[in-house]
Each structure stands twice: as C-alpha cells, then as structure tokens.
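Changelog note: in this version the structure field was regenerated for every chain. One regenerated record is shown below for reference.
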Amino acid sequence: MSDKDRYFKMNWEKELEEKVSREKLSENLGGKDRIKKQHDAGLYTVRERIDILTDKSSFNEVGKLAGHAIYNENNDLIDFKGSNFIFGKAKINGRNIIVGGDDFTLRGGSADASIKEKHLKCEQMALSLRLPLIRIVEGSGGGGSVKTIETSGRANVPEVEGWNLVVESMGTIPRVALGLGSVAGLGAAHLACSHYSVMVKEKSAVFVAGPPVVEQIGQKLTKNELGGYEIQLKSGAVDDAVDTEEEAFDAAKKFLSYLPNSVYQLSDQITCKDNPKRASEWLIEAIPKNIKSVYKIRPIIEDLVDKGSFFEIGKEYGKSIVTGFCRLNGWSIALMASDPYSYGGCWTSDTCKKVQKFVDLAETFHLPIVYLVDCPGFQVGLDAEKKGTIKEGVRAMSAIWQTKTPWMSIIIRNCFGVAGAAHKRGSSYISRFAWPSARWGSLPLEGGIEAAYRSDIENANDPKLELQKITTRLNKLRSPFRSAESFLIEEIIDPRHTRRIMCEFADLSAPLRKTGITNRTMRP
C-alpha cells in the first residue's frame, strides 16, 4: 500500500475532496451557454447577484450539495447540477440577513429543477433566527411549469406548501423581494408578498402568467406591455423600479436600514448631524394663500426630516398620499403626507389601499407615524363609486384606528369630511398641530355654500353678491383660531418651527415603543 493510499485510508480527505468537487460543479449553474445567455440579456447570475448584494465573503450557503447528480454503472459521479434555488446567511453593512435567489439558468427557476425543501428551509431559517429576508426572484420562483407534468409523471393538485411561513414572516421579519428578470406565477406571488419590492426598468416583467398563456385569451402582448414596471408600479403590485440591478440592491439595503431585524427588536437611533432645532424661513410661504393653487409636498418633507433621510415607497401608486421612511433626530419614522398634485389630495380607492398597507407596516415594526395632512376628503364622482372608494376608505380608517404606535398629525391645509377625520385614531391621544394655513370642516366651503344656501342665493336681488357675502362671513367663522378658542385644535404653530416639534415627538416616542407581534399582523 502506497503512502498516499494509506493516508486516504486513515482520514476523510478523500470525502472532503469529493465535497469540494461537487460544490465546484454546483457553481457552474446551468452551464456556460446558459450563463452566457443570461449575461447577453444584461442580467447577472444568481451567484453574482448575491456576491454584489452582500458584504465580501460573508455569504454562508446552505444546501450547496443539493441538486441532481448523474452516475455511471459503477455509481461513480459523472456530473452534478445544483438546485435552482440558492440561499444562506450573509451580511449587508455588517448586519446579518438571510438571502435566497432563483437560478434562471436552470429551467427558469421552475419546480422541475428545484428542491422545494430548500425554499421552505430558507423561510424557516429567516423566521426562526428572526432575521430580515431578501428574496431575489427570477422565473417562476420554484413554481410549476407545464413540463413539470412530464418530469414528475403526474399532474399535481395546486398547493403552495410553506405559505404559512410566508404569512407568519410578514408579521415578524422584514421581507424584501427583488424582481430581476421575468417573474411569473409563484415568483410573482413572492414579489407581491413582501414589505418592499423592486423591479429593474426595461429588464424586469411581472405577471401571473406570461404572454404565451395570455395570448390564448386573445391578448397578444409583449412582456413589458403585460407586466412591465410602469404597469406594476401604477397597479401597486410592486413598490419601486430602478435602472440597474446594483440600484435594486442599494434600495433593499436602504429600506432595511430603517427597520429592526424583527418585531422583537426596535430600530436604533443613529447619529444625526442635522440640527433638530433647525428652522426654515421659506416654510412660512410654502402653502399658497390662494386655495386653488397647488404646491409641491416633497420639498417640504425633505426640509423637515433629517437631511437626505427620506426614502419614498410606492411613489407611482395612490399618488394623493406620499409614503416613506425618514429619520427625525436619528430615529426611524414612518411618514405620510398629502400630495395636492394628485386629485387635490383626495383619497382615491388606490390611496386608501396604500394608506392601509403603510400604516400596517409601521405598526408591525413599531415605527412612530407622522402625517402631514392636506385632505379635502374622499374622491367623489362615478369613477370613485365604481371603485368602491368608501369601502376601501373605511378599511384604511380601521387600520389607523387599530394602531398603537405613537402618532403625530400636522394639518397644513385641508382636513374635510370622513377622510379628513382619518388624521387621528378615534379618541386615542395623538400629538396634533396645525399650520395657520389649515382649514377644516364637514365639507369645503367651495361648492358647499351653493348647496346649503341655495334659497338665499337664488332669491337675492344680486345672487353673485349674496354668494360673496356668505363666503366672506363663513370664511371668518372657519378661521382656525375660532376652532382653537373651543380647543378643537390643540396648537397652531409657526411652520418654520415644525422640524423642532417633529424631532421632539420622535424623542418622546422612542421609549414608548414596545416589541413583539402586534394584535393585527401585516398582510400584503
């Protein structure tokens, strides 16, 4: 017996060499031709994506040896291809996360090249370790294809095993989904079932079923026409779209930076270099005196929060409300603000759905909420009725009423009707302020005067003059100072000092936050 044979007989080096060999084969993914095709499409492979997303050398893969092996008649390994779902623990900016991604070079990420237990274990691992989960989705996300019938020898009764884990994690850990190519079926479901989702413009498409299937119902569409980023952003199915995969990874990191690892922790305060008492002179004229004039809300937001900290979510959906994370004196805050450039700030059906999801997100992860209010009410008219605006509106209001997280509302202009009442949660205490530009009531005077005083106006010698007299009289009565006299509004503040008041709210709210699962866990 040679020294080499004796060496291998006495230890496990040979087995470890086989392990390394199999792992190297697994790294070949679907093979050189498939990898080239992926690159030619301007897309990274799943392993390249994980390497770019995570801190250098931090990815510890789980199940790298799982896959499909081919043996000869002597049971010696000829070839090996890994599963088309890769996952493990990693770090981003020094923070532990779980990441899982589909390998599109192997059967487009579909079930016939997958091992479902890996998908389940990824979900279990994130949930059990209470770590954020980032899912990189391309293809069917482990779902079936027509070819699965042939490879399995049967047709499966539809079932999504492990979806209970997805539902549970929505109320427990942050979930981010990145759609980085064509995403269909179960893959689309994973993208939708997240706290934050991102597509890549012109390279991503998301749909329940792709163009070949849809063509069978008479709709001949390209991928972008059917499920491109513009479609999905406006529908609210996806939150954001960026130009490159690198930007998608940066967006995922930024989103997670505002949240704790799980509901059993609280977001930390970071060092704030922006003076919390900073005053902004221009805010005194930010709201036009002419009520028919609109203004841009985003510059106001950017000025009030810690410089550069505002991270908008869902910009193209439910556009009459701006939602996003920010920091106030270093604390993570969930911020909502009315946008008069969309329906004058009225709550549409889509806006109500957006509010509900965002409020649930803030409540789930114990983020205090700040709401800059300019809401003339619910959208009215035939289109609003067809879309069930009032139904969605009361659902949004119920979500607000159910929150326990600290809440602040600052009425900067309009606050009317039932939708206006949603600036607070019933009789519960909130921190509430108003700018001198604020106006409120059951209905705006405009239009309401003509209805309430129709007889007086029609019977007057000069109906136009009578309308002007009534308007002047009621405008004096609706002054915010008249409401303040009756303590119907707690404080009217100088807009220039709003940042200081918001930062004080953040400081006071921090010790009030409580960890744990909320009474009503979040749903997508």
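Spot check on this record: The mean pLDDT is 92. The first helix runs from residue 3 to 10.
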